[in-house]
Structure formats: C-alpha cells, structure tokens
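Annotators were shown the component list below and the corresponding predicted structure, then asked to write short factual statements about the assembly.
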Amino acid sequence: MSSMDKNISPAVIKRLPRYYRYLGALKAKNITRISSKELSERMKVTASQIRQDLNNFGGFGQQGYGYNVENLYVEIGKILGLDKSNQMIIVGAGNLGQALANYQDFNNNSIGFQVIALFDVNPKLIGITVHGVEVHDIDDMEEFIKNHEIKIAALTLPQDQAPKIAKDLVSWGIKGFWNFAPVDLTLPDSVTVENVHLAESLMTLTYNIHSREDGEGAE
Amino acid sequence: MSSMDKNISPAVIKRLPRYYRYLGALKAKNITRISSKELSERMKVTASQIRQDLNNFGGFGQQGYGYNVENLYVEIGKILGLDKSNQMIIVGAGNLGQALANYQDFNNNSIGFQVIALFDVNPKLIGITVHGVEVHDIDDMEEFIKNHEIKIAALTLPQDQAPKIAKDLVSWGIKGFWNFAPVDLTLPDSVTVENVHLAESLMTLTYNIHSREDGEGAE
DNA sequence: TAGATTGTTAATCGATTAACAATC
DNA sequence: TAGATTGTTAATCGATTAACAATC
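Structure shown to annotators:
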C-alpha cells in the first residue's frame, strides 16, 4: 500500500544500494546537486538507466537542475527501508558470524542495522561477547526472537544445519534471511532470502582470471 | 586460445558455480546420471536454460541419456578454473580477513583454493597465525607476491585504503581481486574484480522484507 | 527568456524460453 | 527399433539505451 509497488524488477533493486553509496560519498564532499549525466559518468552507467531506475519510485529530480543530493540520498534510504529499525540476529557464532558482528560498515546506527544477539550450540562460545553483543544458547533463540520481535537473521552456520534452522526461524517470525550457508533455502513466499555464496563468488573470479589469460591474443 | 571463448555472457558464468554445487551434491548421493529436466526441477530453473548454458562450452550430454554427473562436475570445474592451483593472499587481517582465512568452504584442497598469507599494518596482528596461515607485515607484500607468483588477492581492508593498495598489487602481478571493501575499484581491463558488497546485499534484503509487508494485500 | 535536464515513450538489444529435428 | 533427451534454432520476453517533448 505505502509504496504502491508496481513490481520493480530485481535488477533495479540491486542497483539502488550502489546509488545510495555514491550519493553518500557526494554528500560527504558537500556536493549538493547532481545531474543524471554527471552521476552516470562517475558510476560508469548510462544516464538513461539512472533516470529510468529512479522514476520507478517517483520524480525525485527537477528539469533543468538535476537531483538534490541530500534529498535523493534520504529518499533512496527510505525505499531501501533504512529509515526503519533493522535489528537482526546472527545464527552461528563461528568466525564468519563474529566477523559480521564486528563489521562496522553496516553495523552502526547511521545506516540502521543493528546486531543484537548471536546464537550458537557451542558451550565454549555461549556467554562470550563480540563487539558488545552476547552469544546466546541456540535453545533460547525462540524466546529471544519473540520477545524482541526480530525480523532478520543472518545464517552463518554449517550447510547441513541451515535448512532445518531456517524453517524453525520462519515459524518464530523471521521474515528475511541473510544466508551465508552454501545451500538454497526453500521457504514460504512471504519470506525473503538474500544469499551470499562466497565460494561461488570466488569461482566466478577464477573463471574470469583464467579466461582472460587464455583470450589474451583475441581479436 | 584454449577455450576459444566466444564471449560467454556474465549471466551464464554466474550460474555455473551453482550447477557445480548441485552436481557435487548429486555425486555425494551416488547419482551417476541426470537429465536437464530433472536437474531443472531440483534447481528451479528451466531445462532449456541448463542446456543452453552448458552448450556454450560444449556438448557434455548425450541424447536419450542426459548428462553423466561425475563428468559434468569435472568439466564445469575445469571451466571455472578449479583444476588449476589458485593460491591467494588476504590483504587486511581484521575480523573479516581472518574469517575468510578460516572459512572451510573454499579453503581446502578439494576445490583448489588456498590462502597462503595474510597481510596487515597492525603490529599486534603481524606474526600471529590464523588457521595455520601467518599474518605478514604489509611492507613485505611485494616481495611475497613476486616470490610466490600470486595472482589472487582478497581485499578486506578499510574502504579508503583499498584503491591505492589495489593499484600497487596490480603492479606487482595480481590479476584478480576479491573485493570486500565498499568501493568500486578502477583498474586496467586485464584485471578482474569480483565485488562482495555486504552492506549492499543487506540493503536489498531489507528492501524486499519491507516491500512484502506493504504489498501484503496486493493481487 | 533561453538553457539545461528531467520524465517518459519508443527503439534496440540481450537473455530466456519454447519447439523440434538430430541422435543416442 | 522405439523412446528419451540432447543440441540448436526460432519466438518471446524483459531490460537497457536512445530520443525528445515537457518543464523548471
């Protein structure tokens, strides 16, 4: 209802955070206005694409002027849901889970994400504190989620455990998964899964490195 | 020359690791053959897409039979460059760098990736060992890369340092970057960059969570 | 006002899906 | 051989780019 989503394509959505990052950088440089043309040169995309993308959400610009940096930054933030509080838990307090808990890039109030608990089965980890956040017993997770009305869970646990725990988490109210386990989660349509498949990302890198080596003398 | 790359689209390349993962799982279940139709049902893509994708690289199947799982697994591994040794270094031995050094998913010989050194400026980190891999002084990086003929570097360092260090690394022989810094690296065309922008991935997650909430009653 | 730049429609391009002849 | 399933061409669909009238 609020944003009368006329089914925005995933390709557009994936580009929004990058616009947001560039606008943040412009803001930090005290640049107050920018045209789609100049932004397109900085970002190495077409000005057409920028205007098309933004116009999915409303007319943020002004003819003859361009876009107000501060305003556009705020608007894209709202579109992405960064104005809401986004508390999350991390399930699996191993190296990756702890790294995410420590990660300053998003884990600060200015962007609005906040890790409020880690969970693990390992008694050696339960009770320790990572970046001021406590590792809890995974058996206490249901109650914690319900008490704190958590909607987002990062999954940084072994592949074989991820599907079952994800299913439980959905029944306890989790609406979005940030999934680092190398497995595809099959969950109801009302639930969102954002995969970060690190091993797969690394494989596309090696593909590109090797294919460039081979194609050196290409036309 | 070797693979006479007829310019495979990035969309196809990004799907290959997922095929590889599914074939590995089939192999582990001792399934020896699979048709594009059955694989398409498991992976929730069209059989057409699977056949089109694979045929960019050669006729791996057999009419009336389907694909041999073991063979296809090996072939896709070769396409991705997993048969070659892929030694890499991690630049930035903070939480994320250490987590990657520890990450078992790719950091084992069976897939062919191997982290052989971490680098940092922090004297407190230099000399420690993470998952059997030593953290070196970043001043020793040039010599190390040249001695070991390293081609791949993971960048897990602060955003403001990434562009300069990436430039240096290129001059020392690095061909591919696995970039975790929230910045776009501008480098020569001969160099490959695979970005893992965690904060941006998390933002698309919140977008989807919130837009589903709003659109609940949509047709 | 004249100049600049948006918002938006139309044209192009590329990727996905469907269909089917080839063939194991 | 008959049945199954690929490899590949053709049709469709969606996303990107170009163009330009609207308008600040």
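Statements collected:
1. Residues 35-37, 47, 51-52, 54-55, 59, 61-67 of chain A lie near DNA strand C (CB under 10 Å from a C1').
2. The longest strand of chain A covers residues 113-120.
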